[in-house]
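Notebook entry, structure prediction.
Reason for the run: the old model in the group folder had no record of what sequence produced it. Starting over properly, with the input documented here first.
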Amino acid sequence: MDPLADERLLPYKQNLVVSSIDVRDEIYDFVAKYPGIRYRELLRLVRVSNGVLTYHLGILEKFGQIKVQRQSNKRVTRYFIANISKQDSDIISYFRSRVARNIIIFKSDSTSTNKSQYTRLSDIIIKHIQ
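New structure, fully documented this time:
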């Protein structure tokens, strides 16, 4: 093989390594900025292919930089930085759910709620956070 061809490929290979680290750093930064972010949100923000995002998330999880919260009864996967507690990640997950967040905002804004509204509200909350 031509030795000059190897020299021409080397800068290209070096750029690939650097860009992989840059992509991984960007993914980590988004997870830190938006705790509980879902896969599709990350895919949209990072603007890489599905396979590239999956690969880098796997590397970050493998080396303990992020935690992945998978809910078995729902098809929901959320990503958190590694040093967040389980309790905090659960609370953030509830608030990242549009339905649960709207219920909590409704409850905090409501000044006069009767007993039947409380019952209905608690039934809705239980349905959506289990």
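Summary: The longest strand covers residues 66-71.
The old model has been moved to the deprecated folder.
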